[in-house]
Amino acid sequence: xxxxxxxxxxxxxxxxxxxxxxxxxxxxxxxxxxxxxxxxxxxxxxxxxxxxxxxxxxxxxxxxxxxxxxxxxxxxxxxxxxxxxxxxxxxxxxxxxxxxxxxxxxxxxxxxxxxxxxxxxxxxxxxxxxxxxxxxxxxxxxxxxxxxxxxxx
Length: 153
Description:
alpha+beta, 22% helix, 29% strand
């Protein structure tokens, strides 16, 4: 069927209207964290509030190295989350959701990672969360990675 421009006389007008209250999105990699090429360490969406999405935080040092044990990687991951939140002008209390990915969950003792979660958040500010067992993460030897979503304002 050929296109009939008379059938849609207002279609062009719909697309010409400016977006009201468009969301502004800021993406960056804060100093003190690794500087990846393929994703942003921090994403902030503004309107009506500020929605902050942290790229998967792992126990990775700024030089892209990481410790061997789950306990050390978990502690460093939470320190990196603190660093990223501070760079986004947010706090632990602003976190609304976390997703924790643990490699080989059936055969590893996840207690150190669970303890770090319990100790990280102030009383009354626990986010929605989930733990997901996976077979591997982006780097061989990486054992835990945490996605974080926060809201401010």
